[in-house]
Amino acid sequence: MSNNTAVIVLAAGLGTRMKSARPKVMHTLGGRPLINHVMSIIDDFNPVRTVVVVGAEMPDVAKAIAPVQTAVQMDRLGTGNAAMAARKEIEGDNGDRFDGLVLIVFGDTPLLSAATLERMQNSSDGGASLVVLGFRTPQPDAYGRLVVDADGGLDRIVEAKDATPQELAIDLCNSGVMAVPGKHLFALLDKIGNDNAKGEYYLTDIVALAREAGLKCEIVEGDESELLGINTRADLAQAEAIIQDRWREKALLDGVTLIDPETVWFSFDTKIGSDTVIEPNVFFGPGVTIGDGVRIKSFSHIEGAEIGDSAEIGPFARLRPGTVLGQKSRIGNFVETKNATLGDGAKAGHLSYLGDATIGEQTNIGAGTITCNYDGVAKHMTVIGSDVFIGSSTILVAPVSVGDGAFVAAASAITQNVDPGSLAIGRARQVTKPERGHQLKEKLRQNKA
Ligand code: UD1
Ligand code: MG
Known about the structure:
Elements lengths: L4 E6 L17 E2 L2 E2 H12 L3 E7 L3 H7 L3 E5 L5 H6 L2 H5 L9 E6 L7 H10 L6 E7 L8 E4 L5 E5 L6 H4 L3 E10 H10 L14 H7 L4 E6 L1 H4 L5 H21 L3 E2 L5 E2 L5 E2 L4 E2 L3 E3 L4 E2 L4 E2 L4 E2 L2 E3 L4 E2 L4 E2 L3 E3 L4 E13 L4 E13 L4 E2 L4 E3 L9 E3 L4 E2 L4 E3 L2 E3 L4 E2 L4 E2 L8 E2 L11 H13 L1
Parallel strand pairs: 1-4, 1-6, 4-5, 7-11, 12-15, 13-16, 14-17, 15-18, 16-19, 17-20, 18-21, 19-22, 20-23, 21-24, 22-24, 23-24, 24-25, 25-26, 25-28, 26-29, 27-30, 28-31, 29-32, 30-33, 32-34
Antiparallel strand pairs: 2-3, 6-10, 7-10, 8-9
Helix pairs in contact: 1-5
The chain binds uridine-diphosphate-N-acetylglucosamine (UD1) and magnesium ion (MG).
The site of uridine-diphosphate-N-acetylglucosamine has 30 residues, from helix 3 and strand 10.
């Protein structure tokens, strides 16, 4: 629990280096927008107040973080100007100074942890000094550099574009995260100018201004893998690799076998029970929950699915949103499910599409079964009971139902409901003409000659 600390998240940047129509903070890591990763860290930190600074034309961002309070930065004049945009939300209409500590966090720094924010809060002398979160990296590139004074305190921050060669050689970088005493923050932001390489109001300039005003400025050092700022798609891929590794390690610690961890891709909310085995090359989109003792075979793509204990999936299975699989159920190769519930022990072993369907316990779906769920305008349900046998290559034209214990002959087109216990045969009777095979071949050969 954090005491009297407010957080400002800067998320109004256009992210031009992403070369994208989407705002930068809406790009995803593990299936979730960057801004939502940041918000979840802040939730764990639990501040008294949170304000997210967004652009006026960014309804998606405001929607993604609702109901968290937003402030609008009208023009992109830099990080200092963006922090200023949150003034009213932090201080209130009367312009009362905010007595606590204000943490400024960037929406493009999603690997941070609540523990690091707590460390910064603890280093601020009860909200009296300014603290900057720094990190060391062998490749400081475009990061701002932290210039340290003779006593090891923070003297100022210099942006890479404005730095001298000597300053560029500094390997201690600015992560962007800053803790500033609330009663000084906006007065300091007010003094920032834009006489620099980018012509922007840099948030980083408040360090030198704070020193001039006699405020103590300090550095808390964090880890590079937590403080990566995402500016380009290459940064995004690097962050994805880091977060996937974290999740793989967690799955292994939680008792999940990953035969080749580096080839398994998780989403932020993937939940897997113990003694489940994930074979190489499996992808989990958002919304997947898997029970205990499940086996997911190679090359399966799974999203929005709930999988019961001891089920067996794949290889090459595609489970789409709304899939619910019972215990000991089985989905084999080249089977696609969508909005489909399979009861305990139900099986669809090969080459099927099961969409908008419920299938009862112990039912067997033969190879090549297709639910025709869409008539070009609307979707319709197929309801299959328990202990049903659906023969191979059956077409079920929805809406249609097949009762408990029924048997559908292979290659049927089922267009009418089948009562429990019945046998349905929905195909033309076979005709066999003795010797006509030979005769037909002979005729075809003569035609060709
Ligand atoms: C910034 C820092 C740099 C630091 C790096 C860490 C400044 C001047 N530079 O550089 O010292 O090493 O982050 O990753 O602060 N934003 C707005 N409005 C704006 C501009 C930016 O809301 O007008 C937001 C962006 O959405 C982003 C964050 O502020 O979430 C940082 O902006 P960005 O342009 O990515 O700054 P960097 O160049 O990475
Ligand atoms: Mg950045």
